[in-house]
Amino acid sequence: MEISIITAQDYSVVYNILTQVAHSGIRIEDDDPAGFERFIRRNPNCSFIARVEDRIVGILIAGHDGRRGHIYHTAILDPNRSRTIGKALLDALYAAFAEDSIRKAGVLVDADNDAGHDFFTAHGFYQRDDLDYFDHVAE
């Protein structure tokens, strides 16, 4: 397996993968090519593609604000190897965050995404019960 950094030129491949995977969190209003390019420019070393024999099998899109990191999207196309691929992507992210002295990372997981809950819990994430998450979308 090869892990490489996602670039803005990877948008169509990334978008295609995210639309194939349930619970990816993709929103065309926020995840258009221009928005994707802005995000990658702000976080150039924090998003990754996993390839096996030149076939893309997974992605992880993440970033940070200088003190805390956040995983925004994950997608694994090979369910039989999801833990192996996911762990390799997380390891690449942890190395990138360490280079920028980021020690804490968060991820939002859909309430009905049992596989996502299991994966992130198995990799040291814990579910917080001390806060509520709020969204605001500009009109």
List the SSEs and their pairings.
Elements: E1 2-5, H1 11-20, H2 33-42, E2 48-52, E3 55-64, E4 68-76, H3 82-99, E5 104-107, H4 114-122
Parallel strand pairs: 4-5
Antiparallel strand pairs: 1-2, 2-3, 3-4
Give short descriptive properties of this protein.
139 residues; single chain; five-stranded mixed sheet
Q: How many β-strands, per DSSP?
A: 5
Q: Shape from CA axes? A: globular
- What kind of oligomer do you see? single chain
So, CATH architecture? Answer: 3-Layer(aba) Sandwich
Give the integer mean of the pLDDT values: 89
Give the count of helical stretches: 4
CATH superfamily: Gcn5-related N-acetyltransferase (GNAT)
The CATH topology label is: Aminopeptidase
What is the total domain count?
1
What's the level 1 CATH class?
A: Alpha Beta
User: How far is the N terminus from the C terminus?
Assistant: 42 Å
Q: How would you sum up the major sheet?
A: 5 strands, mixed
Q: Please give the radius of gyration in angstroms.
A: 14 Å
Question: Order of strands across the widest beta sheet?
Answer: 1-2-3-4-5
How much strand content do the residues show?
Answer: 15-25%
Contiguous low-pLDDT stretches (5 residues minimum) are: none
* Secondary-structure class: alpha+beta
Q: In sequence order, what are the helices and strands, one letter per element? A: EHHEEEHEH
User: Which percent bin holds the helix content?
Assistant: 25-40%
